[in-house]
Amino acid sequence: MAQELIRLESLEGRLLFAVPKKGRLLQASLNLLEGADIQFKRENRLDIALVKNLPIALVFLPAADIPTFVGEGRVDLGITGHDQVQEHDAGVRALARARRMSNEWDTNAAPANGKPQGCEIVMDLGFGVCRLQVQVPAKGEYQQSRDLIGKNIGTSFVHLAREYFARLELEQDGVTDPALAEGRKLRTKIIELSGSVEAACALGVADGIVDLVESGETMKAAGLKAIDTVTETSAILIKSKAPSNPALVDLIAARIGGVITAQKYVLCQYNVPRERLPEATKITPGKRAATVMSLDEEGWVAVSAMVEKKQVATVMDELVTVGATDVLVLDIHNTRST
Ligand SMILES: Nc1ncnc2c1ncn2[C@@H]1O[C@H](COP(=O)(O)OP(=O)(O)OP(=O)(O)O)[C@@H](O)[C@H]1O
Ligand SMILES: O=P(O)(O)OC[C@H]1O[C@H](OP(=O)(O)OP(=O)(O)O)[C@H](O)[C@@H]1O
């Protein structure tokens, strides 16, 4: 406790950066921090770590809570899933609707710390890619989401699931007037589950579920199939609308952006006869433009250009067909551009 108090005091003047404390996004987030040279040592059981080389404190939080902390301006920056931000925003919309219905207007809605509410997406981080899908027993009677109207749905994403089924119910009932839509009670029952959602159908808790799917292994093992996608998601960097140190937020964003670019691209170098250069640079246009240098051999040039990793094999094949030789592919450790 004493150690925790000392730490809280030393947060003074530091930018607060929320990082998922466990789960699917943790390791990739730590790799990003390392790539961005954000140095820290996380003490055992402590969810706050002071960064040694920058005025930043990392706060390790559940991915699902990070949009709330950033959105309320308690924390300046955060890494979480886009699905979690969407779920949080759907929750905010539900609360606003409930307040409108009960005529409870302004006082509770004002942020306690006076900061503007909500978070902004700074960039996609390229990992944690998956889909939030409606799933039903593979051998069951339900074929489309509409068949689940009025049934029990198990999920951790209750607000997104509610909005999804509310839309389906409106469509089915032919309601187009937003005023009529506002006060309607949902016929579909959304059951909040905090984990192992895929077991809900087999255990008779739910008729269908709304859960994340990446490889589909979990879904298949549970005897389920996907019948619709609620949203697609990946990890994102978010910032509060009023960060305590905007310049430091921009610096961190630039560093993280550089690491992501480095992970996404390789450097392709080759030699090519000068007269084939236009064809070659069409294949490797580079991020801005390819670098072309003269070779100490008449009629030849050396070219280097960044190429997306996932395209590099095809690019190499194509370069050879236009007469390139000595094609090399090099890893990029880090990058920075404006
Ligand atoms: N199979 C997956 N593949 C890719 N990304 C995933 C996958 N499962 C979850 N994610 C991403 O990671 C985020 C956190 O999910 P995760 O299951 O790791 O949560 P958690 O914080 O460990 O909580 P829980 O205790 O509910 O499992 C999700 O919101 C989603 O953005
Ligand atoms: O399509 P797949 O590749 O099988 O991935 C999907 C699973 O991954 C996530 O759960 P996770 O394993 O993180 O644990 P959890 O169920 O406890 O959230 C998600 O909730 C699915 O269950």
TrEMBL record:
Every ATP phosphoribosyltransferase catalytic domain range: 63-256
Gene Ontology biological process terms, A to Z: L-histidine biosynthetic process
Domain Histidine biosynthesis HisG C-terminal stretches: 262-334
Broad class of where this protein is predominantly found: cytoplasm
UniProt keyword annotations, A-Z: Amino-acid biosynthesis, ATP-binding, Cytoplasm, Glycosyltransferase, Histidine biosynthesis, Nucleotide-binding, Transferase
Gene Ontology cellular-component terms listed: cytoplasm
GO MF entry, a single one: ATP phosphoribosyltransferase activity
UniProt-listed InterPro entries: ATP-PRT_HisG_long, ATP_PRibTrfase_cat, ATP_PRibTrfase_CS, ATP_PRibTrfase_HisG, HisG_C, N-reg_PII-like_a/b, N-reg_PII/ATP_PRibTrfase_C
Reactions catalysed, as given in the entry: 1-(5-phospho-beta-D-ribosyl)-ATP + diphosphate = 5-phospho-alpha-D-ribose 1-diphosphate + ATP
Entry's localization field: Cytoplasm
Taxonomy, superkingdom: Eukaryota
Pfam families tied to this protein: HisG, HisG_C
EC number: 2.4.2.17
Pathway: Amino-acid biosynthesis; L-histidine biosynthesis; L-histidine from 5-phospho-alpha-D-ribose 1-diphosphate: step 1/9
Family: Belongs to the ATP phosphoribosyltransferase family.
PANTHER family cross-referenced by the UniProt entry: ATP PHOSPHORIBOSYLTRANSFERASE, ATP PHOSPHORIBOSYLTRANSFERASE ATP-PRTASE
Protein's name in the database: ATP phosphoribosyltransferase
Species of provenance: Thermothielavioides terrestris (strain ATCC 38088 / NRRL 8126)
